[in-house]
Amino acid sequence: MKPVRIHGIGVAGGFGTGRQAFEKALESGLPPPSLRVDLAALEAFQPARTLRRMDSFSRLALLGAHLALEDAGLEPKGQDGLGLIIASGHGATVTTAHALLDSMLAGDAFTSPIHFANSMHNACAANISLLMGATGPNLTVSQFDLSVPSALLTAHRWLREGRVERLLFGAVDEHSDLLEHLWRRQRGESQDPMRPLATRVESARPGEGAAFFLLSTKEETAPVYAAFESVTVGRGAPVIPSSPLRVLGADGRVELGKTYGAMAEGARIACFTPHYGSFPASPAFDMAAAALMLRRGHAFASPQGEANDTESTVLAADEALGTQGLSCLTWVPEGFGVVDLAISA
Amino acid sequence: MRVAITGMGCLCAAGGTLPQCMATLFRGHRAPALPRRFSTSHSDPYPVFEVPDFEESPDLLRTSAMGLAAAREALKDAGLDEDALKGLRVGVCVGTTMGSTLNDESFCRAFRRGETPDLEPMARIRRSNPAEVIARTFGFRGPCQTIVNACSSGTDALGIGADWIEAGLCDVVIAGGADELGRVTYSGFISMKIADNTPCKPFDLNRKGLNLGEGAAMLVLQSETSRRGRARGYLEGYGSACDAYHQTAPHPEGLGLKRALRQALGSVPVEDVAFVNVHGTGTPDNDKVEGRVLSELMPAVPFLSTKGYTGHTLGAAGAIEAAFTVACLEEGRIPPSVGFDTPDPDVGICPVADITPIRSHRALSQSLAFGGNNAVVLLAKGERP
Q: How near does any CA of chain B get to the CA of A142, in Å?
């Protein structure tokens, strides 16, 4: 069976836009002051008239998709047979609110067909496939905090079984007034730095962003970041991976701290969530950071890593990884995801 | 691919269980009506197919409650009780249109007014991810996936669930679709000018659009090593492809649909297909494209749309229609494509207008969706009498 490899990474988050900006942030170890995304870079990829009817959620996803294809050295059009899988916990929250308000404020007959169409969960997948000519299978998955590992399971399967040879996998979630309102009421307001490895205190901050990957079983000209060993998802007690090197999806939510502590026990760990914040698509950023670490063979520093209260060792900046693979771990009470990545031969 | 279907459950406007639905279909009965569950300020209301007499729990969204009801029926049909499921790796894969959407009207209205509304409606949405609800209720520990691929979601969920069995990830997968009908969806489809203000007429010359519906269907998919009883059917193929042509209109030549059909059929010859349960929404574009593709690829194969009995149940449609397809294979006949009367020369092919006996043991069920998605499953009759 051919290995599934990562050939392109396209990320946009509070740290900036693009793989290089992300690497720079990871190398600095300094989280950004704001966790919001600037979409201005999209104008380099698409003319304004194309973007006119596209909402902020689709634009965010499209930016990630363009960046991943560019990073993989592929044209952003005519991608016949390219598969597309999108993971999103909340979908287009801004436009969904607009679609609701249309009928609430003006009456049912004044519902905007554009707002309604863009509020569909798979609207961003539709826009990407349309612009890029991606005629392969097209899927959007929404499983709240487990959207990324759940969707990745299908991406991995489609590539392994040969349903597609190339697949664009993306995770995207946007912040909104509604989400901000909910966040403040449930978690309060804090500008303190996230300390995700201090598992007994609440330090989460809401983020947003898009993380896309060009995955392939073909021999591509673009360099390989890492290869997938396996993707495991399930409910109940998390499967503790055999790999002694683990990237934790801990994001400062105190109710998750104890289990992340157990998953870290005895391992060498890293955690990068302060660079992008807490939101359902964030496990894809964990995976991007992990793939970048594997390619360079050395660790990035975990922001606020000194606040680690788990029984584990936090990787230091530029420390040699010393292994061929690592595991990215996501856990919430509803279930878990384990993505095993390896250095590609 | 050959994955056993050992149980099925379904509820929609045609009935509260799968046997009730099939009886309705073969009676040729349908009862679209103006919405009863929500009010609308449209001056010219459109008929819909609501599920009557279904009381959802206040803890769950109606979508998830209907999905759960269909899952209970399917598990019972499969003979899988708590004891039988013990030790098995069970996954859940469910299609819907708005799996996790934070769209509670009362909450958003109060939020808009600057109030501090009770958080319970949002907590209810968080509790109601359709796949998670089924997994949580039955204590399943396998993979859990809610697919939000618009109107092909249910078909995609079946194909992906079957793949989990094929790959050895699960012994059992509960796969299907669920969707409730609400005011925003209703107004949204009307705003896109693809709804009919009379009972829908799939493939008819005078068709004007779709009627919306709601419902759920779940199929129990099982590995050969885990199943004890005889199968009701088999899922033998899954195809999926995107038109990449237009956000809301299908490709005029049905390029994505053709590709998905070929994938689903694999090496099975068209002559082995007894019938096709098509998407057949009743919109001018959809039916024209499906008709053209069928007349090109399988002109002699009978086909029908069951949306005249159920309305378009969106994310549930593919699963409901797959359940109907397997049940028709068991019965050895298909019901008339209700609503069809006058052939459309532009479509070039006509659905069955009467109860029609079928001649082989395989059939296709296909879905076309917003965004240009096309998904097809190849289904076969099982051994259960």
A: 6
Name the residue facing B371 among A125, A132, A150 (closest C-beta). A125
A119–B contact, CB cutoff 8 A: yes
> What is the Cα–Cα distance from B61 to B73, expressed in whole angstroms?
19
Q: How far apart are CA A296 and CA A286, in angstroms?
A: 16
The CATH class, in words, for B3-381 is alpha beta
d(CA B253, CA B264): 18
Smallest CA–CA distance, residue B155 to chain A, in Å, is 12
Q: What is the C-alpha separation between A74 and B131, in angstroms, rounded? A: 35
Give the count of beta carbons closer than 10 Å to the beta carbon of residue A165: 17
Give me the residue spans of the domains in chain B: 3-381
Q: At what angle do helices B153-166 and A147-160 cross, to 10 degrees?
A: 70
Helix (H) or strand (E) holding A160: helix A147-160
How many domains is chain A built from? Answer: 1
pLDDT at B100: 66
Instruction: Measure Cα distances from B224 to A160, B71, B158, B172, B221 in Å.
Output: 22, 20, 17, 10, 10
- Spans of chain B below 70 pLDDT: 99-100
- Show residues of chain A in contact with B129, CB under 8 Å: 142-144, 334
- The parent domain of residue A50 ranges over 4-342
Say whether A10 sits in a helix, a strand or coil: strand
Of B100, B111, B150, the CB nearest to A122: B150
pLDDT tens track for A169-191: 999 999 999 999 999 999 998 78
C-beta of residue A83 within 8 angstroms of C-beta of residue B160:
no
Inter-chain CB proximity B119 and A185 less than 8 Å? yes
> For residue range B332-383, what is the model confidence (pLDDT) as tens digits?
999 999 999 999 999 989 999 999 999 999 999 999 999 999 999 999 999 9
Tens digit of pLDDT for each residue in B83-129? 999 999 999 999 999 766 888 888 988 998 899 999 999 999 999 99
Cα–Cα distance measured from residue B380 to residue B5, given in angstroms and rounded to the nearest whole number: 9
Tell me what ipTM this predicted complex has.
Answer: 0.97
| Chain B contact probe: residue of A51, A79, A96, A108 with most B CBs at under 10 A | A108
